[in-house]
Amino acid sequence: MRVLIIGGTRFIGWHIASALIRAGHSVCVFHRGSTPLRGLNGASEILGEKENLSSYRERFRDFHPKW
């Protein structure tokens, strides 16, 4: 599965991303970049603000999240 997570460097998002990676899924984390993407080896990342999600549509599409 290819999973896009909005927020994922701290709290619940990090644990979900970590579990998905351990299970062999492809993970991309969308976050502001204020906290480094640590401990999520193999995850890709897109930096940006959630208030402007629509402006990242092409980047999300490039990752191609799917089941």
What would a concise description of this structure say?
The chain has 67 residues and is an alpha/beta fold. 28% of the residues lie in helices and 22% in strands. Helix 1 (11-22) links the parallel strand 1 (2-6) and strand 2.
Can you offer a commentary on this structure?
With 67 residues, this protein is an alpha/beta fold. It has one domain (2-63). The chain contains two helices and three strands; from the N terminus they run βαββα. It has helices at residues 11-22, 57-63; strands spanning 2-6, 26-31, 44-47. The chain has a three-stranded parallel β-sheet, with helices on both faces. Helix 1 (11-22) links the parallel strand 1 and strand 2 (26-31). The longest helix has 12 residues, at 11-22.
Order of helices and strands: EHEEH
Number of helices: 2
Shape: globular
Write down the Rg.
11 Å
Strand content is: 15-25%
What's the helical proportion of residues? 25-40%
How many β strands by DSSP? 3
What is the count of distinct domains?
1
Stretches with pLDDT under 50, minimum 5 residues = none
User: How much is the average pLDDT?
Assistant: 91
- State the strand order across the main sheet: 1-2-3
